[in-house]
């Protein structure tokens, strides 16, 4: 992981100057403020700011729904009720701002979550560092033969060495040419906004990413899942650890109902009822496609 001297100085100054405040403070998140958590070979995630805590979710829900929630006996129970019944706006009262350093190809996957505010390091104005994501050998995998979006067996021996060599050589060569094209040695050179087109997708970029808790949970449900691509999943896992300390009651409900729960279609519910009644239901008699049946059976293995 590489932090610039300016970033390190900013972190040290911020942590050395705590401020008294009347706003809600989450002690669990305070310990994460400004600290950089290492991810991949050169990446990191660090909390820049946050707003709200578990009590903010409860407060918003009671303002919104009034007497409709009085039967819920405590704050944790209310939060679980909101999560269980797919309420969203109370969770939007909490926000998190992160500073993330990540490979460009991971950023392009991440940015598909269009429910956040993003400000990315600009290669039009600045020169990107010579830092590339090079996978560890255990992350070098062949294309899956059953899933066009997934990985298959790990590459071994000479084949793994060949792929690693290509990744390193191509990244270094592309950056060398990037530097040569820039006007750094007295030549006219190429504009930075054009020279950047030659950079590989594994070069590192940085951004500030601000998101509310409802949409953050949606991001984590998809990207912290075991089926998500490893290179984005490790960022999601790091964020999960921070969120768990920030809003423990909400995160516990999220783990239970979203990460650990199962959503069933109407046909899936009917199959389950028939099986509980003792009927021997097959895919052919279920009315479900092979894919739907496979996913239903996998949920209860």
CATH class of the largest domain: Alpha Beta
Approximate strand percentage: 5-15%
Q: What is the β-strand count?
A: 7
Helix content: 40-55%
Largest sheet: 5 strands, antiparallel
Number of domains: 3
Outline the low-pLDDT stretches. Answer: none
Enumerate the strands of the largest sheet in spatial order, edge to edge or round the barrel: 1-2-3-7-4
CATH structural architecture of the largest domain: 2-Layer Sandwich
Mean pLDDT: 89
Task: Kindly provide the radius of gyration, computed on alpha-carbon positions and rounded to a whole number of angstroms.
Answer: 24 Å
Give the class from helix and strand content and strand pairing.
alpha+beta
Distance between the termini: 40 Å
- SSE order in H/E notation? HHEEHHEHEEEHHEHHHHHH
Q: Helical region count?
A: 13
User: What is the molecular shape?
Assistant: flat
Looking at the structure, the CATH topology of the largest domain is Gyrase A, domain 2
Binding site for FAD: 89, 112-114, 120, 212-214, 218
Pfam families: Thy1
Active site: 223 (involved in ionization of n3 of dump, leading to its activation)
EC number: 2.1.1.148
Concise structural overview:
With about 300 residues, this protein is an alpha+beta fold.
Can you walk me through this structure?
Homotetramer. Pathway: Pyrimidine metabolism; dTTP biosynthesis. Its cofactor is FAD. The chain has 301 residues and is an alpha+beta fold. The protein folds into three domains: 5-133 and 203-259, Gyrase A, domain 2 (2-Layer Sandwich), CATH 3.30.1360; 134-201; 266-299, no CATH class. It has 13 helices and seven strands. The strands form two sheets. Strands 1-2-3-7-4 form a five-stranded antiparallel β-sheet. A two-stranded antiparallel ribbon has the order 5-6. Strand 1 and strand 2 form a beta hairpin. Helix 9 (230-246) crosses helix 10 (248-259). The longest helix has 25 residues, at 157-181. The mean pLDDT is 89.
